[in-house]
Amino acid sequence: MAADTVKWTLHKSCYMDLDDEHTVPENYLSPNNYVKKNDELANAINETVHIVKAWADRGAKKIDDSISFNPLIGQATKDALKPLIGRGNYKDNAKDIRDKFKKLATLEGPIGKDGDARGRYEQSNAWKSLQENNDHYLDFVIVCRPELTIRKGDFNPLGAPYDMVRLTQLYKGADLEVMILQEKDPGKWDELAQRLQAVTTRDRDLSEVRLHVAETITFHPLWIKTQMDKGFEGWTQEIFDQATAANAAEILKEKSKKNQQDLRPVDILLDASFARNMFHEMFHLTAFGRMSDDIAGAYWWANNIELQNRENPDLLAIIAVVIELLNREGSQYKISADGTVSQR
Ligand SMILES: [Zn+2]
Q1: What is the value of pTM for the model shown?
Q2: How many CB atoms lie within 10 A of CB 307?
């Protein structure tokens, strides 16, 4: 049986908590003694996927308006998107983005939410039956902490990390291992030199894809923790005040020098949004285009204005954010071509 829509669910690290011991069994890198329900985290993740779908759905409609024959309908959207996708034929580019958003908006899940305590989400019968489909690799699991053991193999007699969620042998130093090691030391998000908010994992080659193994979006456990600590409230008034401040660009110039990144005021909003992060990861999935980060500069406003690469996940996330800011409930904001944020 083939599934028509892409389905997703949660890994136990997103809906259960560790017991008080937090012990790590021998041959494990990650603790695995999940015992208590954690509805707070599960609800936050579910809500974020809901927001991602809403951004995709409304974004597709607004982009459609921007290529309408009636120029009055979608002019604000078109003005806002031109710096991001205006090179070449705006209309063709806009249709391409619209179709990518439309597909994302059809996402279905979380599967197994209402299963009983021993069989919810990825442990539910509903999810297990999807595993029999030959296109289950198009489905995915959201993971809030990598689940890794150490296994020996032909090429790693001393042992290397093994991903228990996708049943995949990893190499030493793989992103998922980095997350677990950083969670132990230094254990604080703000102290990390290199921050991987999330990693999307898929089989490397489409011709060797395992049909019955779902892909994963794994969030850094420390990134999840910082989100939990502030109740997943990314866009606070404080953040908007920083981004719209008259001296925002000036302050960022100093930070740009330090980070060797050309940062603009809108990047404050991009960085603070967990939904932007999730929107980005979706486009790494095979189901939504199997895209790779642009090696010339995947992130931030200035890079994306320059590259306008419609196969770069962060460009799609930035477009979603720009449309959201223009249309959101409460105060609305517009982003100018140089990345300045102003109240609309
Ligand atoms: Zn990426």
Answers
A1: 0.95
A2: 17
